[in-house]
Structures
1.
Amino acid sequence: MSTQHRTKLRIQTGDLDGLLGLGLNNLIQVLLIISLCRGVLGFPDSLLFGIILPATGISLLLGNLIYAQQARRLGQAEQRGDCTALPYGVNTVSLFAFVFLVMLPAKLSALDAGLSEAEAVQRSWQVGLIACLGSGVIETLGAFVAQHLRRWLPRAALLSTLAGIALGYIALGFLLRTYANPLICLTSLSVILLGYLARVRWPLPTGLLALLLGMVLAWGSGLISPDAASWTQAARAIGVHLPSLQLSALWQSRFDLIPWMGVILPMGLFNLIGSLQNLESAAAAGDTYPTRGSLMVDGCGTLTAAALGSCFPTTLYIGHPGFKALGARSAYSWMNGVVMAVGCLFGLFGVVTVLIPVEAGLAILLYIGLAMASQAFASTSERHGPAVVLGMLPGVAGWGALMLKAGIRAGGAAGDPKLFGPQLLTQLATADIWAAGVFALEQGQIITAMLLSAWLVYAIESRFLAAACCSAMAALLAWFGVIHAWQFSPGDTVMHLGWGTGRAWAEGYAAITVIVLLARWRQQTDH
């Protein structure tokens, strides 16, 4: 290798730009983990900063180091110095899905069963671990069959399901928070949208400018004015937090894998196929990486996170061509891994949360939600547009159910069976709010979205036998309560598994199957 080529492998100016972009994205994810674990799940800092974040830091370091080395090897093999490492970090959609669809229901269920707050938190964390482990297993094993899965699953079914989660739990959720703090959030949002979509060139990188502007406005408007207690809490988190294997916690939650497969399996498949698409994007930009090896690194990163105590899967990020255009090569990747690992292992992000309010980074997350929802339409055939919309609706309904039940709990009615029971459905129906349907769509919403969207794609393409298979599968899953079947618990609505628990919905899907088969028969007789 020439001296000139070796030089190209060193840190370049573009690597610093890439570090800023990828590091800012990862920073927002970590701040989001802290915010959701503290605010939604009620996790103590000892668990958050002592176990979850150190495990997250190691998983980010491991993946980034390997992908950086992969880029260097590609450059050596092809004798060029412009290879850009694959961007890698915490999976945003899985983060929201696991928090709101797995860990929060697990905690509420534990509280309903009479467990203490501390026991419910432990239960929620352990269920999150097994969900993360399951996702990692799916990603790792799926690396051997990813291409076949992608050919079998319609793109509209995959992207619309992700878009539904992104639209509800990310875009709508943060849009409400944006309009609760309009000066700060709308200002940052305008910078993000003008920079990323209108291609306005700001004096600073778009994401950094939006974050800094949000911080200034948050401090200046008095939205944040940390007191001594906040600084003391942040200071306590500082220290060396070395991760350790959490095999005991995983073993204790081993029986929780099956009940949550309705979330774990689809999210693992989404992560797998999304990473495959990002590899294709990298190849189109000139960097062709081995499919199986790259996907296995992604899966092993998630397995590492789960084994060490993190509930949040990792993934390949979209945007490799953008990092390549910045001039980022291999160094930006390992530098990002080192920076994130140092922050997680030494508890520095506790201080960052005091300095940077979540509102300052909301615009970036809202943009991610918009981008994911719009991608579902941009990356699919125009004919499949109705299937995309249909696949988005269960996710939006699930978010609506979350909001409805949160309001009921905040009003103190959830613990009273006279107020939170069948009569609630009747009262809401008189106001044209069909809560029974909302709660039915909430259960198994990811599987429902995939099957409905795939069904309509196949129907549009006149592949009626494939469409009948989708509706028949939905009927089978509904009969056993994997999707739609639900029941009231003291503070929540929960899945109702069992023989015939979802009979009403199973009958509906069975009727659809019959009608589709009749349509196929009509098609054959017409020809």
2.
Amino acid sequence: MGMRGGGGGHGGGPPAFRGVDIEAQKRLNAQAPKIPHLGARVVALFRPYTGRIAVTALLVVAGAAIAVIPALLVQRVFDEALFPLSGGGPDLPLLWELVGAMIGLFLLSAALGVVQTWLTSTVGNRVTGDLRVRLFDHLQAMELGFFTRTKTGVIQSRLQNDVGGVSGVLTNTVTSILGNAVTVIASLVAMVIIDWRLTLIAVVMMPFLVIVQRRVGQVRARIAGETQESLSELTAITQETLSVSGILLSKSFNRQRTESARYGDENVNQVRLQVRRAMSGQGFFAVVQVMMASVPAVIYLVSGYFVAGGADTITAGTIVAFTTVQARLLMPLMGLMRVALDVQTSAALFARIFEYLDLVPAITDAPDAIGVEDAPGPVGRIEFRDVVFRYPDAGPDARATLDGVSFVAEPGRHVAFVGPSGAGKTTILYLTPRLYEASGGSVLFAGADVRGLRQESIVDHVGIVSQETYLFHASIRENLRYAKPEATDAEIEGACRAANIHHVIAGFERGYDTVVGERGYRLSGGEKQRIAIARVLLKDPPVLLLDEATSALDTVSERVVQDAIDAAARGRTTLTIAHRLSTVVGADRIHVVEAGRIVETGTHAELLAAGGLYADLAAEQLAASRIIDAEEAAESGRSA
């Protein structure tokens, strides 16, 4: 009834061992972070549910105690109702009373168990749900840098595996400890009441059973650990090969059979481990069963000697009642033996969760932060003053990503940044809405330092279109409404017309209700980019940030998307990072970035005339373009 290995109505037979390698789990527990006042913080999670917990504890104690009483009634059933010691036939009225009382106790115990299970499940899962949402909310508040330096799988593990791991602890461990302890104490008390001499014999043999059971558990746990690793490998293969990217890769290299063979080999290993797991310890189980059956047999033997010696306190009812109670003792004892590991494991999981909850976002609003609308300057004006930026995890001797960057973008103007890869262009873009925090200097938005503005307010005034467009596995309409949930169909259509994508969507069988697939794979690169632009237009921000929005597109798609970008940028302050210089020829100002510094500034014509890095980049791209044109012409000639 909601208790693992607890004091429910378990009789003989092997316990249900958990699929955990005990030694490996202990090593993992030892690596858990040290969190001050961990116990008090865990207890605090339960405070909203104190009343239900108190009722649950009473039900556990009552249920465990009541479960022992029928065994005591067995003695009266045999010695007073079935085979009265005074002689004569069975006392049927008394037998009816005793049997009725036993059935009533069974019903009461079952009812208490149902209520207890509901309460423990409700409390445990609600606390787990509260913890999961709290952790998710906290992660949402973390700065962008946290996610760039932390593996997605690690974050997912904290949310799913760690929080999921404590779910069972929250639901079962406390009631298991309490129920098992009460069952053990009540059973021992009942055994002493029935016959203290037989109790000594049974208790002396109990350690042998526990030792054998523990050995079986360790053997099975080791194999269970290997089985779980194999299952993880199967899952990894599935995720790698059956994702959209994985399928494209295997099909493009015609490696489907190889992937199937790899999956098949691991599946064979999994089957082998499952068979080993099923068969492991069968010899031990046989010994356990013999020993468990031997305890009552020894009791019968000793009782025979007591009776032969003239002891009148050993009756049939005494023997049956004693063996009935004794049979209930092993499982709770095994459960209590596992409590130490359970508590240690749960503490480690909670420590890992609280480690993330204790993370302090590197970027937070100042207590007196204001909104952009209250800033002194015009909305859309962006200024960098001697901005320096280093990543938090960069070494002390590492070169700064940005070093003394200064520029001004006036409202409604188009400012572009070009330069070699790794020069720091994207960092400039992300510093503008304070997705990153400047290490030195100042970033001003609407005339105010971004550190004095509310982050929400800055982001509300900025629209970002990146090179890697992200679309949800949902309809086009739902993806567009992510920017403005209350947008009308007319507003959505208007944004798509401005982004030069409405006619394409209208041509789909389901129009705006077309599901784009995982990461938008059902659409072309150009279509995804234009939907992303439409999404930003629907938000209608005064500032537009474009991070190489056309670099991954072919020439035709680039031209169409560039037209959409030009339309979107009209009347807005636009900061553009460009790989292809052809996309920024018309920019009001072009800054050339190299090694974290702005080394050249001017218009397209001025920079070409200067003959510096920009001119070199332009010459390289022109040469590359001519080579591509020549190759395409040659291919066309061969086809003809």
3.
Amino acid sequence: MIFMDAIETKVHEIIRESYPNIKKFNPAQQSVIDSGYLEDKTNYIIAIPTASGKTVLGVMAALTAILKGGKAVYAVPLISIQNEKVKEFKKFEKYGIKVGKHPSSSDLAVMVFESFDAITRFSWNTLNDVDLLVVDEFHMIGEYSRGPTMECAITRSKQLNPGMRIVALSATLQNMGDLSSWLDAHVVEHDFRPVPLYKDVLTTEEMETKNKNDVIVKILNTSIKESSQALVFVSTRRFTESLAKYTSDKVKRKLSPEQKKAFHEVSEKILDVPRKRGSLPTAVCLKLAESIENGVAFHHAGLFDKQKEIIEDEFRAGNLLMITATPSLMYGVNLPSKNVVIRDYTRWTSQGPQPIPVFDYEQMSGRAGRPGYDTEGYSYLIAKTLDEAYNLKDHYVYGEIEPTNSKLIENKDAVYRQIITQVASTLAKTPKDLFKFFLETFYGWQMSHNEYLESFCSDSIEYEVNTALEFLVKNGIIMPTPDGLKTTEFGMLIAKSNYTVETAVRLREFASVSEEIESSKLIYELSKTPDMPLISFKGRKSKEPVRDRLNSEGIFVVDIGLSEATAATMLEWMGERNEYEIENAFNVYAASTRRSAYEASLLVKFFRNICNILNIYSGTDQLDMLAARLYYGVKPDLVPLVVSVKRLGRKRARAVVKVFGDDLKHVTPEKLTRIDGIGPKTAEAIIAKFGNG
């Protein structure tokens, strides 16, 4: 047995060698280490400011567990953060610690919340092997979409693997006492930031400018003089683009030849992304590249993933002056900057524009100040008048963040899915078992420990569970039996997927009422489900081209929205149109096409499983063809080629068929390599599958 002091020594050695920039622990980190959390076996919530080194503290706990012979899971909210952390933690492999994305095949597994939730549902042997769960961005437990997933995964983990330790890394929260009591955890809080943060509200009046954008130009000019960087948050994609163009035009004459050269190289990398995918740069790509020529990039969901990655990497490397971004970036990858500007403090919701929460303001502001680069960070809100500035300062700069409350019951799909999960995994056989589970969630804890709500806590949970159960029984997902509640075959399919109940019910209804399955109508139905990533319009140009495309498939619609744009895009993608052509045809953010098409291909397979359950077989033989066409973006004749030859792609596959036709039996490798992009290995792979040999 290795003694704890020997393990601590080894952990410190690994951290020192893996993070050479850390010469000594900062006061926040040291206070956490001094709390004894590495030796303690109880749960902990570590709450220190953004950029104060929370990751290293989580890693130290994970390494301690692993060196004792255990396994650790490091849970994060987003795939982008997962990829970043896997890359960062790979350095531990030289110490014999296997790093991956699943605990069945690694000592340190970096998992998104949904993946960890999945092992709490059905992989109990794997869950029981996990000795430590590190939850990054733990404050997101109060977020509407991902919060309930993490909340219920933790609740199930505490029931199924009570010996598993939890270390939660969080921003400071107002009601930390609630969370620590529910989690049965010690809390260590510290307000030290390696880079001091100064928050202020600027006005167009004080800055003697006509509009908010000119205030940002002044901040950018100061950044250029100081050789620092700026990150600006605005409310919409279109605003990120217009602001990037506006500021880039204003500063282009102030750039040195060296800067111009560096920015041009980044701009070319951006344009290379669509080119390598067989598409001309879209108008959005050209707009982005043009702004980057002057050191300003915009960042939003309508870009190619690779372009976003380039922008993030180049900004971190100091090769960009400024990024204009939508608020989603506040939860994304690590992207600190000396100056953070929050131009828009409202966000569009179904109820119209609403002020952002103080918590979100703090998250965005927390990006200011790069450890190791800046001696201070500055966060600026922008107002038009002094009165507005006074109100904003009072509410955001000096105001308290909102309490973190469970969103479990607000999110109806989360309630449905958790009930299905509990029944499918045999953890609940009666409504009473379900009441007990929900009572043990953070939602249940908050209800039962609130002096105004505790008296009707049980009645409230009982009502919510019974209402949800009624819906699930009515829709053939759960059925009462003499032996207790059980999932139907349809319910089990939902339980083992990550799709919403609404998606499953909608697709089952479509399968039930369709006399025959038409691909175009199925694609439109998929585009109306909440699990389909939607393609957005770029502006307010005519939407008639989308209507015309759907009409041509016999789909007649009154209103043209994002679902219709997505369906039309998918149809064109399967017709081998590239992103440039799709953007021009429909005026949409076509860079998202591949992601949507990939998800659509998976949804088609889910739909086929639903058909099998319903004993519907007529026309389902075409669903595999449809899934392949969506995945590869090809017409039917190319499917055998792109499926059989790895990484051939649709552009080169079409070139092969164009030259040689469908019969490749007598084609030689030499002839194949004459086609642009076909090398000897690819030629051999084609011959092996379709040649005479």
4.
Amino acid sequence: MVLAETQLTAPTIDFLGLAPLLIVFGAAFLGMLGEALLPRAHRYLAQLSLSVVALLAALVMIFPNIGDNRPALALADGMRVDSIVIDGPGLFLMGAILLLGLVSILLIAERRVSVGGAFVAQAALAAGSKADADQAKKPGLTEVFPLTMFAIGGMMLFCVAGDLLTLFVALEAFSLPLYLLCGLARRRRLLSQEAAMKYFLLGAFASAFFIYGVALLYGYAGSVQLVDINAAIAGSGNSQVLLMAGLALLAVGLLFKAAAVPFHVWTPDVYTGAPTPITALMAACTKVAAIGGLLRVFNVAFANSGNADAPSLAWDWQPILIAIAIATMVIGSILAVTQTDIKRLLAYSSIANAGYLLVGVIALGQALGATLFYLVAYGFTVLAAFAVVTLVRDADGEATHLSRWAGLAKRSPRFAVIFTLLMLAFAGIPLTSGFAAKFAVFSSALEAGQTTLVVVGVLSSVILAFPYLKVVVLLWLQQPVEDAPSVSLPGAMTGTAVTIGVIVTLLLGLAPQFLLNIVEGAGQFLAQ
């Protein structure tokens, strides 16, 4: 009787604020229907068109929300629900993921450089079988487009999630498609499947840590909303055992996605085994989502939320995160020096860059704008780098061993110039986006009093410059090997991706102030 008399009131939904998410997830569902209903011959063009139009439409729908700071859901009595929060940093992160995702879709769609594309035509066939050999000349499967859209939508949701359960749902929404996509490489299928299995198993453990941390934090605060956890820290008399244990377990899941030490062990193998367009997607978009989630969680739930007089937990977690950031920068840069495969080199570079981004996370609000700038600068550069990697090919496909790249500048000077520019940007040479990004993060961290982190960051950057410059020397000053690979002419998709990446790398190096003004104008996370 009590249940029968209870009146359920539907929440107020801000459809304008949710429009970018709804468009991307809607396109992903339409893509799945297209796989079931459209003839196979028409799927590629339909899926590519749907994905590109949806990403552009979602990007356009971000602009009407600029300047607003509000939760996307509210109860009829006015009570705020922070499941999804629309604020300046969240909108910027969603926009960055959409732009980087659009370039990634172009790489995924490329079929001119390699016959049939980078993806297997039928994933269920046993690797090495006769049927598997027969499908090598068939077009790649088109399910990769809706899977990628689900991953991009999950990453966007991860950046605007205002409570831990929504954060977990978003984490799984973009992780599960990536587990599948990593195992769909057309060539070296066993290596690709091994990479997918490693990523899945380690990701499952990280998710378990994350959800257990959510449970402990709920036990401490009585809520999973980030603002409520912050309020409980400020005013609750509960024991902090649950709080600190929950924070530690939660951080494991977040740092795993960011590829921070010691949760980085999956990165080199997965980056190497996955299809290169998917590696590019993970290196750019997943990095934005993971760091965006870390920024929101630590700025809103475990800092003083912009109120200098409020109690803060930062003094308790910052020393541990500082140690992780130092280990990530040092180990990533040192191990990058020893690599002989370009994809593994870029994997350890990604680990080191995760350490530089953690410097921005530790500095909290003072480095928020600089960290957002770094994410965009790094994202476009790494996308262009992996796009160029797809062009160096021999009879077995992509030639990723660095010894095979010797003297390639003599065969393709244009390729060598582009890759040299990207390597110099990774090394942080002035007049490139890498220098502007590192300068912005390190200067903001200095203002926040993190001098030790900045010193370690600068020293590790010097170490990390060595493998980048080694590649440049290899391209220009070494003699070509006898069976040197060729540099394929890029198709329209890959050519566009490389062009965009190079232009952004140059623009953010020569005139970074435009984007810096945008990120500084994005404001702080909605916490009050």
